[in-house]
Amino acid sequence: MGYKFATKAIHAGQHADPTTGAVMTPIFQTSTYQQAAPGDHKGYEYSRGTNPTRKALEDCVAALENGSHGLAFSSGMAATETVLKLLKPGDEVITGDDLYGGSYRIFTKVFAHYGIKFHFVDTSEPDHIAAKINDNTRLIWIETPTNPTLKLADIEAIGRVARAANVLFAVDNTFASPYLQNPLDLGADIVMHSVTKYIGGHSDVVMGALVVNDRELYDQLFFYYNACGGTPGPQDSFLVLRGIKTLHLRMKAHCENGRKVAEYLKKHPRIDRIYWPGFEDHPGHAVAKKQMRDFGGMVSIVLKDASLEDTFKVASSFKVFTLAESLGGVESLINHPATMTHGSIPKDVREKVGVVDNLIRISVGVEDIDDLLADLAQALG
Ligand SMILES: Cc1ncc(COP(=O)(O)O)c(C=O)c1O
């Protein structure tokens, strides 16, 4: 569809139901589909492989990422796992040293056991990636901005490194959402999303997605998708289709509130360090300006001279923000990465990249900004 983002968010992959005229895509709560004769069906055989509600969602997410094919999964980790299944023992992966804890865990505690080697580098320097490439390198996997320290990686520059070495290049686009950044346009082969976050947007569904622009790669991924079965149900697909219709409106509000929260916190005497790519002194600011349409609603802070106990006390004293795992929903969330989302990363490994005990990650929601700032003031006070 040649339409702009907001139109695609509302219409892509969807059309009125031909039997009833229903405007909203129905929840096709069926596991199987009638066949007139063996193999003679309407494109749907069994819902592990395809389901019409899920297909509408997959086409919508693919359109938002300017890709040709999308796949929806029962979680972001199931999507990540499916990409890793393209690999064989002896293959090597180059990835970031500052990643979502669950990605670090699946790399080091699951796929490393199948003979796949992972190299963790600072992906804000494309040269660090190039330096690790060898004949066994099969995949480059990055997050940008990273979770939780919001480091930027230059997708176009890494795409050139990947193409020169004929290596698959995947981008976890969860933190940006397709509204802010489209990695396929910048040279990535695969975009991955934890749909649970901004795309779903209402903290009521766990889901993942992959989008590609290549039929052959899609077929390979679909093989593992259907063979292994990490597929979401039609109810969840419907909820996300509904959530996606306001993605552009929500993202605008997240970015606006994110900026105000970051500007407020930057001047706060209890803050030692703040990570938000919209600041000109953020090391990734130029890359963020080049490849993102705005700076997002994620802000991380390091509290000044705060012990773990002091940090817990601050994290537990919010009234509007909720202390909880996850991000990207309409409600503002506070997270303590060291013990929550990144608890599966050993202390020495996480501290090297700044995931210290006094780091707090904030997912700025779309509530009234005055209430958010007042809550920050009282919790930090
Ligand atoms: C950047 C990032 N990637 C992947 C995931 C995993 O997604 P899910 O929780 O939907 O399995 C998360 C979850 O927090 C995440 O933040």
Helical coverage, percent range: 25-40%
Count of discrete structural domains = 2
User: What is the chain-wise order of helices and strands?
Assistant: HHEHEHEHEHEHEEHHHEHEHEEHEH
- Overall pLDDT confidence: 97
Helix-strand makeup class: alpha/beta
The level-1 CATH class of the largest domain: Alpha Beta
**Major sheet strand order:** 1-7-6-5-4-2-3
Q: Total strand count, please?
A: 12
Query: Any idea what the radius of gyration is?
Result: 21 Å
The low-pLDDT segments are none
Instruction: Quote the CATH topology of the largest domain.
Output: Aspartate Aminotransferase, domain 2
CA(first)-CA(last) distance: 50 Å
Query: What portion of the residues fall into strands of 2 or more residues?
Result: 15-25%
Write the layout of secondary structure elements.
Elements: H1 5-11, H2 52-64, E1 69-73, H3 76-84, E2 92-96, H4 101-110, E3 117-121, H5 126-132, E4 137-143, H6 155-165, E5 168-172, H7 177-180, E6 190-194, E7 208-212, H8 215-228, H9 234-244, H10 247-266, E8 271-275, H11 285-291, E9 298-303, H12 308-315, E10 322-323, E11 333-335, H13 347-352, E12 359-363, H14 369-380
Parallel strand pairs: 2-3, 2-4, 4-5, 5-6, 10-11
Antiparallel strand pairs: 1-7, 6-7, 8-9, 9-12, 11-12
Helix pairs in contact: 1-2, 2-9, 10-14
The structure holds pyridoxal-5'-phosphate (PLP).
